[in-house]
């Protein structure tokens, strides 16, 4: 797991909290902020996943072609 994956998950959690607070307080702005944070977190996590996949592929290639 790399830092982008961790930050992405953290941002998604913050987004869920903001969304829930927005719903509970009938604050559409806070709810929207939560939705946007979740989206940004998913993008960052996906970026981290892609970096991990590339690293794994590179390591596999090194093992197979010493």
Automatic annotation (TrEMBL):
Q: Fetch the Gene3D superfamilies from UniProt.
A: YjbJ
Residue ranges of coiled coil: none
Q: Region annotation Disordered: residue ranges?
A: 1-66
Please indicate which superkingdom the organism of origin belongs to.
Bacteria
Q: Where is the CsbD-like domain?
A: 4-56
Q: Report biased composition (Basic and acidic residues) as residue ranges.
A: 49-66
Name the family. Belongs to the UPF0337 (CsbD) family.
This one is known as CsbD family protein
| Organism whose genome encodes this protein | Paraburkholderia graminis (strain ATCC 700544 / DSM 17151 / LMG 18924 / NCIMB 13744 / C4D1M)
